[in-house]
Write a structure and sequence with these properties.
Blueprint: H1 6-14, H2 24-33, E1 35-39, E2 44-47, E3 55-61, E4 64-67, E5 79-81, E6 86-87, H3 89-94, E7 101-104, E8 108-114, H4 115-118, H5 125-136, E9 161-162, H6 168-177, E10 182-188, E11 191-196, H7 197-206, E12 225-227, H8 232-242, E13 246-250, E14 256-261, H9 262-267, H10 276-281, H11 286-293, H12 296-305, H13 310-334, E15 344-349, H14 350-353, E16 364-369, H15 375-394, E17 412-414, H16 415-427, H17 434-441, E18 445-448, H18 456-459, H19 467-478, H20 487-495, E19 500-502, H21 503-521, H22 529-536, H23 544-570, E20 578-580, H24 586-612
Parallel strand pairs: 9-10, 12-13, 16-17
Antiparallel strand pairs: 1-8, 2-7, 3-6, 3-8, 4-5, 4-7, 10-11, 13-14, 15-16, 15-18, 19-20
Helix pairs in contact: 1-2, 5-24, 8-13, 12-13, 13-15, 16-17, 19-21, 20-24, 21-22, 21-23, 21-24, 22-23, 23-24
Length: 624
């Protein structure tokens, strides 16, 4: 193919993304700066794993094979590009050796555009969309092998199994003989529970059950389950969330294959660092707890660098924060023997309640009492709760004594007080900060005490019976708009001008608010934002496509947020949600711009739909 002149190349570029979003004169400037070259079949065009690319490559004719993973260069290509395809932009924009490797599969004609000129193509809306799409989905023909092993590697030996009706005294004897800290009880087809040393102490010694009591009555309240093939990290997260010392492992047919304890995880090279959780659970003093908690950011960075997905790293962070809080409660109340730890349930609120806590997240809390302590007793408890938050703050976790905290009477109430308050907020969300309190409490997750005690959340399942309240809560949820404060902010982000962008306030919170409202509107108790959006998807207010867009955007932004906060910590800077624009890569800046646009579009649609569709129809299936 003969080289194109400037006019033909301009027309060619203008017909393909991301150049189709540029003004004609801008495309012509790119075409003028381009150099054209031909490559024979099998010839190397670019190896951006070895050297950063300083050019943008456009396929004019022929087929180019790309490898996006440096570890898979000996395998088949990950994707093939044809006329109009571009490559080399990731290395060009980041100025790093991040790939790809490009080889001519046929005779190929290429236009090479200098990076300083080509960068302007990604400053347009179309360019930002192109980058975001590229980052959301990188085609691969080979599965990516995670750095963490599977749960299969940690299963050793035959599990100790006892009958459902076997007396606990006999179960204890068999556990002692086998030098085993558990026994598996088969409750039914594929249903298992565990009798453990801890459950025997709690049910037999503390509660006074007779030795003839059937094993089925002395089991742990929660038994986490893993399936062969699950990653060790995922199984460990389930254990940490259940605050359990063991996890039952089954095969795909739910046949019992073994039991793995925290000891196996601690000794395993694949999850050795997560033994920090056990160190926190058993910290002998406040000083030890504080010292160990300051290792959390290093652990998260290591988990991320070793291949654990960012969403799972954030989930691990939330479970570890739970461990810090639980141990802080135990150590505090050990110094207050006159106060019972069985009298209340501690709830994590906010991002940690949703299991979405990052390094900048506040540790919000509330407490529900089973009985009715006197005002004097309540004051003593609130003082103790303040001591808990002081320990948590010393441990490096962010707390706000003037915000949602169990050390304030507004967040330490009896179960009946919570129920009455929730009903009043539901009936009149505009009074007494009802909408704000509702948003806080529906994110609540019990992490200490009786998990079935708090009654406040159950009240909000009645939301659909209050269409007026439903509308007011929606207005409140959409009040925080996803935005770049002005068109100048857009240019600043794309052109790397000095400035700050609050990724929480202007991008993530709008999604969190939509997810919370959507889950309330369908009466779902799920807490994580992604799960809320998923369970509420397909309604007139939140169509399937919009929900999926928000899920993808949320996950990408959380990944970016975590990565930058770990960088801030490594640089000795307190992690913050305010990202310094000039320190962000061009790809990250473009992703933020596109994410804000996607969120704002969903918010605008929800506002429009709510203005003409009766509230009773908001949760009905979307019309085709």
């Amino acid at each position: 193919m003969a080289s194109m002149d400037v006019a033909d190349l301009t027309a060619f570029l203008a017909g393909h993304p991301p150049f189709d979003g540029l003004a004609r004169e801008d495309v012509e400037r790119l075409a003028t700066a381009a150099e054209q070259a031909a490559y024979a079949p099998g010839e190397l065009i670019l190896d951006a794993f070895r050297d950063p690319s300083v050019e943008l490559f456009v396929v004019l004719a022929g087929q180019v094979d790309l490898w996006n993973d440096a570890d898979g260069l000996a395998s088949d290509p990950d994707e093939s590009l044809f006329a109009g395809g571009i490559f080399g932009f990731s290395a060009m924009l980041t100025e790093r050796s991040v790939g790809p490797r490009a080889v001519a599969a046929t005779t190929v004609d290429i236009a090479r555009i200098p990076g300083d000129v080509a960068a302007s193509a990604f400053a347009s809306r179309r360019g930002a969309q192109f980058l975001a799409d590229s980052m959301f989905s990188v085609p691969r023909t080979r599965p990516v092998t995670p750095a963490y092993g599977s749960i299969d590697e940690l299963v050793h030996g035959e599990p100790l199994v006892v009958a459902l009706d076997q007396p606990v005294v006999e179960v204890a004897r068999r556990m002692t003989e086998a030098d085993c800290s558990y026994a598996v009880v088969r409750r039914g087809d594929g249903d298992y529970a565990l009798v453990t040393d801890a459950s025997l102490r709690a049910r037999v010694v503390a509660d006074g059950l007779a030795g003839s009591t059937p094993a089925g009555e002395a089991c742990e309240a929660r038994t986490p389950l893993a399936t062969l093939g699950d990653s060790a990290a995922e199984a460990l997260i389930r254990m940490l969330e259940a605050d359990a010392d063991h996890i039952v492992v089954v095969d795909r047919e739910r046949h019992l294959r073994g039991v793995v304890s925290t000891r196996e995880f601690t000794l395993s090279p694949t999850t050795a660092d997560v033994s920090l959780h056990e160190q926190l659970r058993h910290a002998p003093s406040v000083e030890d707890l504080v010292e160990r908690a300051h290792r959390i950011p290093f652990l998260l960075g290591d988990l991320l660098s070793r291949g654990l997905a960012s969403g799972k790293v954030i989930a691990v962070n939330s479970t570890i924060i739970d461990a810090v809080i639980r141990r802080a409660i135990e150590l505090t109340f050990a110094a207050h023997p006159d106060l019972s730890m069985d009298a209340f349930t501690w709830m994590s609120l906010g991002s940690n309640g949703r299991r979405e806590a990052v390094l900048s997240s506040d540790v919000d809390s509330a407490v529900a009492f089973a009985g009715s302590p006197t005002e004097e007793e309540m004051a003593a408890y609130i003082t103790a709760f303040g001591e808990v938050h002081a320990i948590v703050a010393r441990a490096g976790l962010t707390t706000d004594g003037h915000g949602a905290s169990a050390s304030r009477r507004a967040f330490a109430r009896t179960n009946e007080e919570w129920r009455a308050a929730a009903q009043s907020w539901l009936a009149s969300p505009a009074d007494h900060q009802g909408a704000i309190m509702t948003s806080l409490l529906v994110d609540g997750r019990p992490i200490f005490g009786d998990p079935g005690l708090p009654a406040v959340a159950s009240v909000f399942t009645e939301l659909r019976d209050h269409p007026g309240t439903m509308r007011l809560l929606l207005v409140d949820s959409l009040a925080r708009r996803a935005r770049l404060r002005s068109s100048r902010d857009l240019r600043d982000l794309l052109m790397r001008r000095p400035g700050l962008f609050d990724i929480k306030s202007y991008a993530l919170l709008p999604i969190v608010n939509i997810g919370r409202w959507a889950a309330l509107s369908v009466g779902s108790p799920v807490l994580p934002t992604v799960e809320r959006l998923d369970v509420a998807a397909g309604s007139a207010m939140l169509p399937e496509g919009n929900a999926q867009t928000l899920i993808e955007v949320f996950e990408v932004l959380q990944r970016l947020r975590l990565r930058y906060q770990l960088m801030q910590h490594q640089n000795g800077v307190r992690p913050s949600d305010e990202l310094i624009v000039e320190q962000m890569s061009p790809i990250d800046r473009s992703i933020i711009v596109q994410a804000v646009r996607e969120i704002a579009a969903v918010q605008k649609r929800m506002t429009n739909v709510s203005s003409y569709l009766p509230a009773e129809e908001w949760t009905l299936p979307e019309r085709s």
